[in-house]
Structure formats: structure tokens, C-alpha cells
Design a protein that fits this description.
Strand order of the largest sheet: 12-11-8-13-16-17-18-19
CATH superfamily of the largest domain: CoaB-like
Strand content: 15-25%
Helix content: 25-40%
Oligomer: single chain
Largest sheet: 8 strands, mixed
CATH topology of the largest domain: Rossmann fold
Structural class: alpha/beta
Number of strands: 19
Distance between the termini: 17 Å
Number of helices: 14
CATH architecture of the largest domain: 3-Layer(aba) Sandwich
């Protein structure tokens, strides 16, 4: 990535501070960052801090004689491989959708011939306003890509969609678009399973679990950001596929196994999905009703073991097979036993009884392999994903 460059436009809003961390992530990955700071953005972050983290000059004024002499705004708009707008305020989105060019940021967006990635950040009412939604649709139709916004608490005290995506999520989305042969996983195919399975009992009821799919989706995004071709086989979740990832939607364990087999061969397989251990032997064709005879008898049968199947010796076995173990007690012992029983290469184990793990945004894991156990401290699931993706890249290298 050392020859890749990003033009980072920092809009106004409390979320502007996250642009500093985003710049740090880009520089750590060897990506060049040239910043444009809007007048509103300068109310929240200083040019000095942005310049220090980007290791480049900060551009602010459309009519600066010095800047125009050194690099005209047209040249600036085409000086990078990707333009990232973070935060993308309602004002910046409106200007870009309307084709306005009254300041350096909007002029750059109008003059560029490079792809644009926006990370919106605004009050929930502003985000849901029909005008913003029209601008969003217009920008998407023009080819602008988006990451976020997330749903959560905001600095204004309200809650809902409009919170800017975290820097690591924006970083992954940008890296997936930068792509390029320099990625350590370029040319590698990785298969990921994520989310729960839903095993039908009747047309209404299913056997499932509380898996959100967040960790598996984060790993898929992190691997794609390192250049891998990623196939994500997903159970039913309320998540969008990460940029650059091919998603195959399934519901049951049987469907998930079939999709995994069809996706082979792969250089690595990461089985994150929380697959139901059992399914109903017979699925009722109509909705079951209460009756004086009591509840119906449901006979359960075992589902196929996807991790063990992918780990089995054979011509199509991936070089690296990673399993996940969601446990509520004896974490390390259970992980070691699963590693031996399934025949995989690594087990990533987590204690899902801990607060905020199952369905949350953070994780704390053990990475167990035949050589020993590596304990990773609690961190965001995106950070855990990035760390695991890096380990996978090192192993496949």
C-alpha cells in the first residue's frame, strides 16, 4: 500500500476528532494521507494536529495564492487514489449532491475523477430528513460509496441513526476500495461463515441463537482490506456485507454447509457462525396450535458439523482452518478440546457469558493452536478482526 494515497476531507461536527484516528490508521498501513480541513471542521480539530498525523500539509482555502501555486485545486482533487469524507456532514452531502463549488472541499468533490467514500455524521433528525435522504440517493446514483452511519447515542443527547462509523470501520471500507496487488492476501481466497442459523419447526417458529454476526462480518471486512477475495456465507443477520466481500445468504446449517462446499477451494476458512447443533426431524407444514393434549413432541436430530467437515483431510481442505468456540465456562479447556476434536488448525474462543460480548460490539478472546494459547485483551470486534486477519496473512505467507 506504500504507493496508495487518500485525500481526507474533514467536515465540521463533533465526530471530526475521529478523523485524527483514521489518519493514524492510514499512515500505519503505509497509505499516504493529504488532508483538506473545512472551516467548520477547524472548529473541532486543529490544522496542526491533522498535519502531524497525516504527515502532510493541511489544505483549507480555495483562494490561497500559496496553495494554488504549489498545487492547484484541480490537481489536488486528482492527487489521490481515493477521496474519503469523514465526517460527511449534511451540508457537505447537500453541496456534493447539488454540484456546488463554493469552498475547497465541495470544489474538490466536484472536480475529482477518483472514487469517493463518505462517512456521514449528523443528528438523527437531520439524517432522516427527506432532503438528506434525497441527497443520499442522488450521491449513491452518482457512484459515491458510504460507510455508516451507525445507530447510537450522540453528543446532542439523542439516540438513533446518524452517529459516524468508527475509524476502524471507515479504514476497512477505504482499504477494500484501494485494493491493489500490494495487499498481503492478494490472490488468496478466504471462506467465512457468520451469524446464526435458523432451523424451522413450522412456518413461523425456528430454533436459533443470539449471534449478531458482527464478529464474522468484521473479520470478512478485515480480510478483504488486506486484499483477499472473501466469500461470506451468512445466516440471517441485520448487517450489510462489508465492501469487497461476496455474501451468500443461507438460513439452515444444511444450507450453510452446502454453500461452503460450493465455495471451495479456498486458502483459508474461518468458521465464526453460531451453527445450531440440532434441527427438528420433521418440520410441521402448518403453524402449531395449543390444544388440550398439551405441547407437541418435537424430535431433534444433529446438524452437520461444518467446522469438522472443512477440517477433514482431503484435496479441497483449506491450508488454514480456524474455528470459533463460544463458551460459558472452562474457556481454555473447552477450546483445546474442540481444537483436537474438530481437527482444525486454530480455535478462537470467547466467553459469551461476559457482559456485552454476545451481540455486542466488543470481544475478548483466546487464540488456541497446537503450540499454545495467546490471550487477547478486550477490544472492539473490528480490532479483534484486524488482528486475526493479520495473523492469517502471516500464516498464509
Amino acid at each position: 500500500m506504500s504507493e496508495r494515497r487518500v485525500l481526507l476531507i474533514v467536515g465540521g461536527g463533533v465526530a471530526a476528532y475521529k478523523a485524527l484516528e483514521l489518519a493514524r490508521l492510514f499512515r500505519k498501513a503505509g497509505v499516504g494521507v493529504r488532508p483538506i480541513l473545512t472551516a467548520a471542521g477547524a472548529e473541532f480539530v486543529t490544522p496542526l494536529s491533522l498535519a502531524a498525523l497525516c504527515e502532510d500539509k493541511v489544505y483549507q482555502d480555495l483562494f490561497s495564492l500559496t496553495d494554488e501555486a504549489q498545487m492547484g485545486h484541480i490537481e489536488l482533487s486528482r492527487s489521490a487514489d481515493l477521496i474519503v469524507v469523514s465526517p460527511a456532514t449534511a451540508d457537505l452531502m447537500a453541496k456534493a449532491a447539488a454540484g456546488l463549488a463554493g469552498d475547497l472541499a465541495s470544489t474538490t468533490l466536484l472536480a475529482t475523477d477518483k472514487p469517493v467514500l463518505m462517512a456521514p455524521a449528523m443528528n438523527v433528525r437531520m439524517w432522516l430528513h427527506p432532503a438528506t435522504q434525497r441527497n443520499l440517493a442522488r450521491l449513491k446514483a452518482d457512484g459515491v460509496a458510504f460507510v455508516g452511519p451507525d445507530e447510537g447515542a450522540m453528543a446532542c443527547g439523542e439516540f438513533g441513526p446518524g452517529r459516524m462509523a468508527e475509524p476502524d470501520a471507515i479504514f476497512e471500507a477505504a482499504m477494500a476500495r484501494l485494493g491493489g496487488p500490494a495487499g498481503p492476501l492478494a490472490g488468496k481466497h478466504v471462506l467465512i461463515t457468520a451469524g446464526p442459523t435458523a432451523e424451522p419447526i413450522d412456518p413461523v417458529r425456528v430454533i436459533t441463537n443470539r449471534s449478531s454476526g458482527k464478529q464474522g462480518y468484521a473479520i470478512a471486512g478485515a480480510l478483504a482490506a488486506l486484499g483477499a477475495r472473501v466469500t461470506l456465507v451468512s445466516g440471517p443477520v441485520a448487517l450489510a456485507a462489508p465492501p469487497g466481500v461476496t455474501r451468500i445468504d443461507v438460513e439452515t446449517a444444511v444450507e450453510m454447509l452446502a454453500a461452503c462446499k460450493s465455495a471451495l477451494p479456498a486458502d483459508a476458512a474461518v468458521c465464526v457462525a453460531a451453527v445450531a447443533d440440532w434441527r427438528a426431524d420433521e418440520v410441521f407444514k402448518v403453524k402449531m396450535k395449543k390444544s388440550h393434549e398439551g405441547p407437541p413432541t418435537i424430535r431433534l436430530v444433529e446438524n452437520p458439523d461444518i467446522l469438522a467437515t472443512l477440517s477433514a483431510r482431503g484435496a479441497k481442505r483449506p491450508k488454514l482452518v480456524v474455528g470459533f468456540a463460544a463458551e460459558t465456562s472452562d474457556l481454555e479447556a473447552q477450546a483445546k478440546a474442540k481444537l483436537k476434536k474438530k481437527g482444525c488448525d486454530w480455535i478462537v474462543a470467547n466467553d459469551v457469558s461476559a457482559d456485552g460480548i454476545m451481540g455486542g460490539d466488543e470481544n475478548e478472546v483466546l487464540l488456541v493452536d497446537p503450540q499454545g494459547t495467546d490471550r487477547w485483551p478486550r477490544a472492539s470486534k473490528t480490532e479483534i478482526a484486524r488482528r486475526l486477519a493479520q495473523r492469517i496473512a502471516e500464516d498464509l505467507a
